[in-house]
Design brief:
Layout (H helix, E strand, L loop, with lengths): L1 H24 L12 H13 L4 H15 L3 H5 L6 E4 L2 E4 L16 E3 L10 H11 L16 H15 L1 H6 L11 H12 L7 H8 L7 H4 L4 H11 L15 E2 L6 H16 L10 H16 L1 H7 L10 H4 L3 H4 L2 E2 L18 H34 L4 H36 L8 E3 L3 E3 L10 H5 L1 H12 L9 H11 L1
Antiparallel strand pairs: 1-2, 2-3, 4-5, 6-7
Length: about 500
């Protein structure tokens, strides 16, 4: 086939000539629309999020679906409610066909995750705003986006927004004319593949985006949940190098209640929500579960929504948002691996290095708690014992001295009373003896009463001592030992 060979050589030559001409003339080297980086995506999403136009709630959801699913916008617009669900910590989507797979041999499910750290690009919160503003889509068999030519209207609105933000885009180094509906799909694929040196499986990335692997690889490499979950969590714009990459979606936590309180609180919550949704009892089970999870996101971000939504936003006037009780808001929370409870959903799509970082964070928190408890225990014990505190030490010493002083005073008072009683009970009179020069004792002729130790404490012994002294001869002088003892007792 010489003609085919020559034609191939000619086409390659033309391609080289065109590339050289573009280089020489300074023309754009790439074909089609440019890719959209994360910074540009967040700028566009935030403007749609803050808009007061009711239709921008719908376009905000389509834009985030296009980004998170990495699908063509047409696939997102043709989604049905019955093909959606919420499992554990993620949304699931199933498609019957794609551009490269027209016969339904590659249908998913594809997994999408919440980003509670950035509400304006959180897909779950965007679904919540859409469901509560357009509750008619919750009926059984309804399409996710009603109406015809939704893609045309979405494309028109997006290009209009690009023009409105042309100055902001220019500051980011982007020409608004180079952006289109396909830019998001190009941008998210590049971001997920290059978000970190620890990237997701390239096969999972290609299969999610619908890119052909080619040759034998398509016969041996298939979609699996683990790889797609890793891609989906990265597509939510969570930082893969941060410990909070393993964050849960907003959910209702009842771990602080007992069994009866949990049942009662859940029933009250669901009853309150059903009263504010039209025809709530006929909402299919998979859709109702999705609504509950989205409602938890509204409760968790309630303060943020009140602060950042436009005053004329239609979502503010919905029955659910208008009078949301504080006690229901407080039930919504997010958790991480280090503080999860029994109600925390299983965290999927988390790579091993993030789990290790989360484990380190858990250990650091335990060490901090241990340090605080140990410090408090030591300080309490030192205060109890009076260490490092002159006030406590002086008080203890003063109390001890006062106790000893009181004890001695009582003892001395008791002994003095006993001595006084013993002296009074003695039969001798004060004029029965005379002390001369503080040493010699001269007794008058009338006799003497000898005060012995037994006379002080034993009346019987005292009486015997007195009788013995009365029998002595008149005028007799006491011997030397008796004089000393009498003098000592009197003192």
């Amino acid at each position: 086939m010489p003609f085919a060979s020559e034609l191939g050589i000619y086409i390659k030559g033309v391609g080289r000539y065109i590339a050289a001409a573009k280089q020489h003339l300074g023309l754009k080297l790439t074909e089609g629309k440019d890719s959209m980086n994360q910074e540009v995506m967040e700028l566009i999403a935030e403007n749609l999020f803050r808009s007061k136009d009711k239709r921008d709630i719908l376009y905000h959801l389509i834009f985030l679906l296009d980004w998170n699913l990495m699908k063509r916008a047409e696939n997102c617009l043709h989604a049905k409610m019955i093909h959606m669900g919420f499992v554990e910590d993620h949304l699931t989507f199933t498609f019957a066909k794609e551009k490269g797979k027209q016969h339904g041999d590659m249908h998913g499910p594809w997994h999408c995750f919440a980003n509670p750290k950035k509400p304006h690009i959180c897909l779950v919160l965007s679904f919540a705003r859409y469901f509560l503003t357009y509750p008619q889509v919750l009926r059984e068999g309804a399409p996710l986006f009603e109406g015809t030519n939704q893609y045309g209207r979405y494309s028109s609105r997006l290009h209009q927004l690009f023009h409105e933000l042309k100055d902001d885009l220019k500051n980011l180094g982007v020409d608004y004319k180079d952006l289109g509906t396909h830019s998001a799909r190009k941008g998210v694929g590049t971001m997920v593949a290059n978000a970190s040196t620890v990237g997701p499986p390239i096969v999972a990335l290609c299969l999610r985006a619908g890119w052909k692997l080619g040759g034998v690889k398509e016969k041996y490499l298939f979609r699996a949940d683990g790889g797609d979950m890793a891609v989906g969590r990265r597509a939510a714009c969570l930082d893969v190098d941060d410990k909070e990459f393993a964050i849960s979606p907003p959910y209702f936590d009842y771990s602080h209640l007992d069994a009866d309180g949990t049942i009662e609180t859940k029933e009250n919550l669901e009853r309150w929500l059903k009263q504010r949704l039209p025809d709530a009892d006929n909402i299919p089970a998979n859709s109702w579960n999705l609504v509950l999870q989205c409602f938890a996101s509204v409760c968790y971000h309630y303060e943020y929504l009140c602060e950042h939504l436009d005053d004329k936003c239609s979502f503010r006037n919905t029955a659910v948002f208008r009078d949301l009780p504080k006690e229901i808001q407080d039930l919504a929370t997010v958790k991480f691996p280090w503080d999860k409870t029994s109600w925390t959903p299983k965290l999927n799509g988390v790579p091993p290095h993030v789990l290790h970082i989360a484990k380190i964070e858990s250990l650091e928190r335990k060490l901090d708690t241990l340090e605080e408890n140990l410090t408090a225990t030591i300080v309490g014990e030192m205060e109890r014992r009076g260490f490092s505190s002159t006030a406590f030490k002086t008080s203890d010493i003063t109390d001890a001295l006062a106790a000893v002083t009181q004890q001695l005073t009582n003892q001395i008072t008791t002994e003095l009373k006993e001595i006084k009683d013993a002296v009074k009970s003695s039969r001798g009179a004060a004029d029965d003896y005379v002390i001369v020069d503080g040493a010699d004792v001269v007794l008058p002729g009338g006799g003497v009463a000898i005060v012995d130790e037994d006379d002080w404490f034993n009346d019987a012994n005292g009486a015997e001592g007195v009788e013995g002294g009365a029998e002595g001869e008149e005028g007799a002088q006491p011997n030397e030992s008796e004089q000393r003892r009498l003098q000592r007792k009197r003192k």
